[in-house]
Amino acid sequence: MEDNIKKELKICVIGAGMGGLCCALALAHYGFENIEVFETASNLGFVGAGIQLAPNMSRILDRLGVWKDIEKDAVLVKETNGASDGELAHVDLDYVYETYGYPHMVGHRASLANGLYNGCKAHKAIKFNFSTGLKDVISFAPKVTFTAVPRQGEPYEVECDILLAADGIKSNTRRDMLKLLDVSADIQDTDQAAYRIVLNRTQLEPDPELLELIDSQRIVRWIGERRHIIAYPVSNNTVYNLSTTQPDVNFAAARIETYTTKASKPAMLKVFADFCPKVQRMLSLVPEGEVCEWKLRVHAPLPTWVHGSVALVGDACHPTLPHLAQGAAQAIGDAAVLAVVLTKLPDSSPETINKTLRVYESVRKERAEMLVEWAAASARELHFGKGAAKEERDRQFAELKAKGGKARVPDKWADADVQKVVYGVDCMKVAEEKFDELYKSM
């Protein structure tokens, strides 16, 4: 690519979540000079809790120059186990670093987001437009035009050469793209919801068993019928993160736009009343009034992620259940591949841009959708309550324990064969090596 193309192209990114921030950062890293990010929120005061930092994510962040700062606040994970009142199985994760070059770590979502944002701020090519969202896409090509709506002020039109829509599962860009293509890909209820909980070290210190958890380098998953809790320390072992999955009750009659609700602490305790005493004591520490529940939704696979000079990114095109711990990693993978392929643009014509964006889709779509299905399958397997399927799962856990963690893991994210597929594929390298062949086939 000639340098003047990188100077001339105006690229707009919708959304400043993990995928959007990484799009902007990766593009600037590869030398693009006119990048604008539009974010509905007034600032990046990120909410949320823990996040798993898998090697396929760390590899990309390291190449973009931000991993070291994110890593400083993370916790190295050396082991994981599945537990009820007793341990079902244990898997040593030291081999992850030896095999993939990066360890499996966990951190706070805010640390990851701030690391990406600080990386972006180091590039003068990136301009942020906070308190401003995308209302609709007016034109997908030859120039992209969309309506930007500031929280204060009048809507205005924005024109750009390329639009990368990382605007989440409720993406207005996806809505307009599918409408234009006369395609339906409805948001789908999963009949699952989640509590996301963070407990500070001071809350756990009076209880030796809970203090041992926050001082560990271990991810624990407690498993019950149609429910589980996954938990681990973050922020240099100063915060203990718990994320649950349980049947959706509170959202059953909710509007499709509703994703979060204030929840009842007694209701939360009732959901996990048959879990072990250690879990009961942790959940009891959550202050009344601070219990929030998230509805877990996905949408049907899309026929395409690209139209004209517009591409969808992350949850806008492949939202996933959290059970493979790959949601943010896959959005970051999308962003990295987009930067790799766009830097290979032979010219800046709309036709060339569209073909190049379709190379991105070709590299990423099948793989991302496979991992979405694996995450759903992991939930199905974990949540068996009784019958032959549960007995087979528990037999596999028993075999895993008997063989010292050297057997199939029913909890897919910890399974070595699954990790080989997820962690072992370098999506940026794939895009580099296959670009010419894929571009010619478009």
Tell me the strand percentage band: 25-35%
- Count up the helices: 16
Structural class: alpha+beta
Major β-sheet annotation: 8 strands, mixed
Bin the helical content.
Answer: 25-40%
Radius of gyration from CA coordinates: 22 Å
Multimeric status of the protein: single chain
Strands of the largest sheet, in order across it?
Answer: 6-5-14-15-16-13-18-17
Cα end-to-end separation:
19 Å
Description:
40% of the residues lie in helices and 25% in strands. The protein starts with a helix and ends with a helix. Helix 3 (55-63) packs parallel to helix 12, helix 12 (327-342) crosses helix 16 and helix 13 (350-382) packs across helix 16. The strands form 4 sheets. An 8-stranded mixed β-sheet has the order 6-5-14-15-16-13-18-17. The protein has a 6-stranded mixed β-sheet with strand order 8-2-1-12-20-19, with helices on both faces. Strands 3-7-4 form a 3-stranded antiparallel β-sheet. It has 16 helices and 20 strands. It is of the alpha+beta class and 442 residues long. The mean pLDDT is 89. Strand 15 and strand 16 form a beta hairpin.
List keywords for this structure.
single chain, 442 residues, eight-stranded mixed beta sheet, six-stranded mixed beta sheet
Brief rundown of the structure:
The chain is an alpha+beta fold and 442 residues long.
